[in-house]
Structure formats: C-alpha cells, structure tokens
Amino acid sequence: MKAEQLKLGPMDNFSYVVWDTHLREAAVIDPAWQPKKIEDFLQKEKLALKLLLLTHAHPDHVNAARYFLDKDKALTLTMHKNDLFLLGDDIKPLNLIKDNDELVLGRVKIKVIHTPGHTPGSVSYVAGGCVFTGDTLFVGGCGRVDLPGSDPKALRISLLKLAALSGETTLYPGHSYNGNSSTIGVQKECNIYMKLAAKSEAEFLKAAA
Q: Does 30 score more than 90 pLDDT?
C-alpha cells in the first residue's frame, strides 16, 4: 500500500490517495477543495478510483466529493451514519459504515474505527501501518469540541482508542496545523491532549473545552 498526502484549499486541508500498488486500485480520503488536483494525481499514477471515504462530513472535508460522484456513477460516498445531518441531501449514493467495519481495496484491508467527539460520526481509517484521523487527532493537537454535534467526553474516549494502536503507526491528520505527519507513539509522548486523555477525564475536559 502507498499513500499520497495532498494539501488543498484555504484551510490547510489534507486529502489522501491510498492505493494497492499491485492492482492500482485507489481510495480518496476526504475529497476537498481542488478535485482536479486529486484527479490529476490519480491519472499520473494510473490509478482506478474505487472508494471515496470521509473521516467526517464537515464541508471542508467533503466539498469535492460531488465532482467524483458525478463523473463515476459506480462510486459511493462512504461515511458514518451519525454525520448524515451535516451532509447535503443531494449527495448520493451512500455507503454507511460502523465501528470495526473492514473495507477492501484490492489487496488492502482498511479498518474503520469510530472516533466521535469532533463530530458524532467521525471515523479514523487504519491501513498499511497508517491511521487517517481527520479532525480527531492532529500533530500536537486534537479536534474542536465547540461545534454542533461535538462532544468532549466522546473525543477523550476516541483519543484513547487511537492511543491503543501500535506506537509505530503513522499518523496522517486532516489538517496541517502543527505538522504534516507523526506517529502514534510520538503523539502519546508529546501531545498534551493525548497525555491528558490518558490521565483523567476532568483534566482533559478542562484543556479541550
């Protein structure tokens, strides 16, 4: 498996192209802002787009999805049902996922971890020694909890779920706020929110609010 990180748009968003190097089948995670740049990369690498995945349904992570859905009627938008209230009614068809689901991309298996808190339907995708965390976990930070549907207590539990991954797992976040990538092990050691989540609910809530 390979992964390409694409920094797109005015909010330092990351979209990701993940692909099976043998069969050249690809997934796009969080299609945002500049679909032509994503499409150009797919064409350059001769990749067939098979999966369109959302970590969550905030507009800055989904605003390029319609471009791909309109061009390929075989595609579906994969997301957690708890974020449907954030999604426009005109984006269909949908593939709704839940915690511990496994998606298949050629020979690559992608595990779904439900990581609510930033939004109720936030998920993280684990594949090939990497985790794509959207706005749940950043390098040196975590997602906002002051938005509709946010829940700081749920976010703490989600960070604990991510902390249970191998420390060598490469972290790929949804925005370039404090850096482009890290590892779970480094974040457990250096990210104050990860450390407080492990320490106590009260201290995490005080810091995250």
A: yes
